[in-house]
Amino acid sequence: MKTILSAQQLTLTVKRLAHQILEHNASLQDTVIIGLQPRGIFLSDRIVTELRGLVQPGAIQYGKLDITFYRDDVRQGLHIANSTDIPFSLENKHVILMDDVLYTGRTIRAALDALLDFGRPSKVSLCVLIDRRFSRELPIQPDFSGKTIDTIISQKVKVCWKERDEVDEVVLV
Fold it and tell me: What is the pLDDT of residues 137-146, one digit of tens each?
Protein backbone atom coordinates (compact mmCIF):
# COMPACT_ATOMS: atom_id res chain seq x y z
CA MET A 1 0.00 0.00 0.00
CA LYS A 2 1.14 3.50 -0.84
CA THR A 3 -0.25 6.55 0.95
CA ILE A 4 -1.69 9.12 -1.46
CA LEU A 5 -3.04 11.52 1.19
CA SER A 6 -2.28 11.41 4.91
CA ALA A 7 -4.84 12.58 7.48
CA GLN A 8 -3.30 16.06 7.54
CA GLN A 9 -3.18 16.27 3.74
CA LEU A 10 -6.79 15.09 3.53
CA THR A 11 -7.90 17.85 5.91
CA LEU A 12 -6.02 20.50 3.90
CA THR A 13 -7.43 19.15 0.63
CA VAL A 14 -11.01 19.36 1.92
CA LYS A 15 -10.40 22.97 3.04
CA ARG A 16 -8.94 23.83 -0.38
CA LEU A 17 -11.90 22.29 -2.21
CA ALA A 18 -14.33 24.27 -0.03
CA HIS A 19 -12.47 27.49 -0.83
CA GLN A 20 -12.40 26.70 -4.56
CA ILE A 21 -16.15 26.08 -4.55
CA LEU A 22 -16.71 29.38 -2.76
CA GLU A 23 -14.36 31.16 -5.16
CA HIS A 24 -16.45 30.00 -8.14
CA ASN A 25 -19.83 30.42 -6.41
CA ALA A 26 -19.34 33.49 -4.21
CA SER A 27 -22.76 33.70 -2.57
CA LEU A 28 -23.84 30.08 -3.05
CA GLN A 29 -27.15 31.59 -4.12
CA ASP A 30 -29.06 29.10 -6.28
CA THR A 31 -26.29 26.55 -5.61
CA VAL A 32 -26.94 23.19 -3.99
CA ILE A 33 -24.50 20.52 -2.88
CA ILE A 34 -25.34 16.86 -3.40
CA GLY A 35 -23.21 14.08 -1.89
CA LEU A 36 -23.32 10.68 -3.57
CA GLN A 37 -24.14 7.68 -1.38
CA PRO A 38 -22.44 5.79 0.09
CA ARG A 39 -18.88 7.16 0.28
CA GLY A 40 -19.21 10.57 -1.36
CA ILE A 41 -21.22 11.84 1.58
CA PHE A 42 -18.15 11.77 3.82
CA LEU A 43 -16.46 14.26 1.49
CA SER A 44 -19.61 16.36 1.07
CA ASP A 45 -20.28 16.42 4.85
CA ARG A 46 -16.80 17.82 5.46
CA ILE A 47 -16.94 20.35 2.64
CA VAL A 48 -20.36 21.57 3.79
CA THR A 49 -19.01 21.92 7.34
CA GLU A 50 -16.10 24.02 6.00
CA LEU A 51 -18.46 26.16 3.90
CA ARG A 52 -20.76 26.77 6.87
CA GLY A 53 -17.77 28.27 8.66
CA LEU A 54 -17.14 30.63 5.74
CA VAL A 55 -20.67 31.79 4.85
CA GLN A 56 -24.03 32.00 6.59
CA PRO A 57 -25.01 28.39 7.37
CA GLY A 58 -28.53 28.97 6.01
CA ALA A 59 -27.11 29.84 2.59
CA ILE A 60 -26.15 26.22 1.94
CA GLN A 61 -28.64 23.72 0.60
CA TYR A 62 -27.31 20.20 1.05
CA GLY A 63 -28.69 16.84 0.02
CA LYS A 64 -27.63 13.22 -0.35
CA LEU A 65 -28.35 11.07 -3.39
CA ASP A 66 -28.50 7.30 -3.75
CA ILE A 67 -27.92 6.09 -7.31
CA THR A 68 -28.22 2.33 -6.73
CA PHE A 69 -31.10 1.73 -9.14
CA TYR A 70 -29.75 4.09 -11.79
CA ARG A 71 -26.50 2.15 -12.21
CA ASP A 72 -25.93 0.23 -15.45
CA ASP A 73 -24.76 -2.82 -13.44
CA VAL A 74 -27.81 -2.96 -11.13
CA ARG A 75 -28.79 -6.38 -12.49
CA GLN A 76 -25.36 -7.88 -11.79
CA GLY A 77 -25.91 -8.90 -8.19
CA LEU A 78 -27.65 -7.81 -5.05
CA HIS A 79 -27.38 -4.11 -4.30
CA ILE A 80 -28.43 -2.56 -1.01
CA ALA A 81 -29.91 0.89 -1.46
CA ASN A 82 -28.97 3.84 0.73
CA SER A 83 -31.23 6.76 1.49
CA THR A 84 -31.77 9.80 -0.66
CA ASP A 85 -32.41 13.06 1.15
CA ILE A 86 -33.00 16.02 -1.15
CA PRO A 87 -35.65 18.18 0.56
CA PHE A 88 -35.67 20.85 -2.17
CA SER A 89 -36.17 21.17 -5.90
CA LEU A 90 -33.17 21.22 -8.21
CA GLU A 91 -35.09 23.21 -10.80
CA ASN A 92 -32.82 25.94 -12.24
CA LYS A 93 -30.20 25.39 -9.51
CA HIS A 94 -26.45 24.99 -9.88
CA VAL A 95 -25.80 21.50 -8.53
CA ILE A 96 -22.37 20.53 -7.24
CA LEU A 97 -22.12 16.74 -7.16
CA MET A 98 -19.55 15.28 -4.75
CA ASP A 99 -17.95 11.85 -4.70
CA ASP A 100 -14.76 10.42 -3.26
CA VAL A 101 -13.14 8.85 -6.36
CA LEU A 102 -13.77 9.48 -10.06
CA TYR A 103 -12.78 6.33 -11.94
CA THR A 104 -14.72 5.21 -15.04
CA GLY A 105 -17.39 7.93 -14.87
CA ARG A 106 -20.27 5.45 -14.69
CA THR A 107 -21.28 6.48 -11.16
CA ILE A 108 -21.50 10.12 -12.24
CA ARG A 109 -23.55 9.16 -15.33
CA ALA A 110 -26.00 7.35 -13.03
CA ALA A 111 -26.08 10.37 -10.69
CA LEU A 112 -26.95 12.68 -13.58
CA ASP A 113 -29.88 10.40 -14.48
CA ALA A 114 -31.05 10.31 -10.85
CA LEU A 115 -30.82 14.10 -10.48
CA LEU A 116 -33.48 14.63 -13.13
CA ASP A 117 -36.07 13.11 -10.78
CA PHE A 118 -35.63 16.20 -8.58
CA GLY A 119 -35.88 18.89 -11.26
CA ARG A 120 -33.85 20.23 -14.14
CA PRO A 121 -30.68 21.95 -12.91
CA SER A 122 -29.32 24.96 -14.76
CA LYS A 123 -25.78 23.61 -14.33
CA VAL A 124 -24.06 20.58 -12.81
CA SER A 125 -20.46 20.67 -11.55
CA LEU A 126 -18.44 17.77 -10.19
CA CYS A 127 -16.18 17.79 -7.13
CA VAL A 128 -14.11 14.71 -6.31
CA LEU A 129 -11.39 13.97 -3.81
CA ILE A 130 -9.39 11.70 -6.16
CA ASP A 131 -9.43 11.80 -9.96
CA ARG A 132 -8.09 8.63 -11.63
CA ARG A 133 -7.83 10.47 -14.94
CA PHE A 134 -6.67 7.77 -17.36
CA SER A 135 -9.36 5.24 -16.38
CA ARG A 136 -12.39 7.00 -17.85
CA GLU A 137 -14.92 5.10 -19.94
CA LEU A 138 -17.23 8.11 -20.37
CA PRO A 139 -16.45 11.75 -21.23
CA ILE A 140 -16.81 13.01 -17.66
CA GLN A 141 -14.28 15.30 -15.97
CA PRO A 142 -14.26 16.98 -12.54
CA ASP A 143 -14.56 20.72 -12.08
CA PHE A 144 -12.90 20.49 -8.67
CA SER A 145 -10.49 17.71 -7.67
CA GLY A 146 -8.40 17.21 -4.59
CA LYS A 147 -5.70 15.13 -6.24
CA THR A 148 -5.23 13.67 -9.70
CA ILE A 149 -3.40 10.37 -9.93
CA ASP A 150 -2.39 7.98 -12.66
CA THR A 151 -3.14 4.34 -11.96
CA ILE A 152 -3.34 1.05 -13.80
CA ILE A 153 -6.45 -1.13 -13.88
CA SER A 154 -5.14 -3.60 -11.29
CA GLN A 155 -4.65 -0.82 -8.71
CA LYS A 156 -7.37 0.33 -6.37
CA VAL A 157 -7.76 3.63 -4.56
CA LYS A 158 -9.14 3.29 -1.04
CA VAL A 159 -10.41 6.38 0.75
CA CYS A 160 -10.61 5.80 4.49
CA TRP A 161 -12.83 8.14 6.51
CA LYS A 162 -12.55 8.46 10.27
CA GLU A 163 -16.35 8.32 10.57
CA ARG A 164 -16.47 4.91 8.91
CA ASP A 165 -12.98 3.40 8.90
CA GLU A 166 -11.56 4.96 12.10
CA VAL A 167 -8.73 6.63 10.19
CA ASP A 168 -8.41 9.43 7.63
CA GLU A 169 -6.20 8.56 4.68
CA VAL A 170 -6.18 7.72 1.00
CA VAL A 171 -4.10 4.75 -0.11
CA LEU A 172 -3.27 3.02 -3.36
CA VAL A 173 -3.64 -0.75 -3.09
Answer: 999 999 999 9
